[in-house]
Design brief:
88 residues, mainly alpha, 70% helix
Length: 88
């Protein structure tokens, strides 16, 4: 709407150097920039939601690997489980 008004005034011969024309130009928002910004904000929100939903995954993976290393040392270094120090 703002851009259309600016173009109409420009077609009527009002200079681009006119104070009001400069104000209209400054108030215009590029449609591409608007949708890029809108989409970018949505993507950031989605990424944060995914990160928050999976924040404990690193802890669970670490816990799994610690138990795996304890119970399957032969797969890792060729040795057997020694002793009865069960970390569970």
């Amino acid at each position: 709407m703002i851009e259309q008004t600016r173009v109409r005034l420009q077609n009527k011969g009002i200079s681009d150097e006119d104070h009001y024309m400069k104000t209209l130009k400054a108030a215009s928002i590029s449609e591409d920039n608007y949708f890029n910004n809108l989409l970018g904000n949505d993507i950031v929100k989605i990424a944060k939601d995914i990160r928050d939903a999976h924040s404990c995954d690193l802890f669970l993976v670490s816990l799994f690997l610690n138990k795996f290393v304890y119970f399957c040392p032969s797969l890792i270094n060729g040795s057997e489980i020694v002793g009865s120090n069960n970390p569970l």
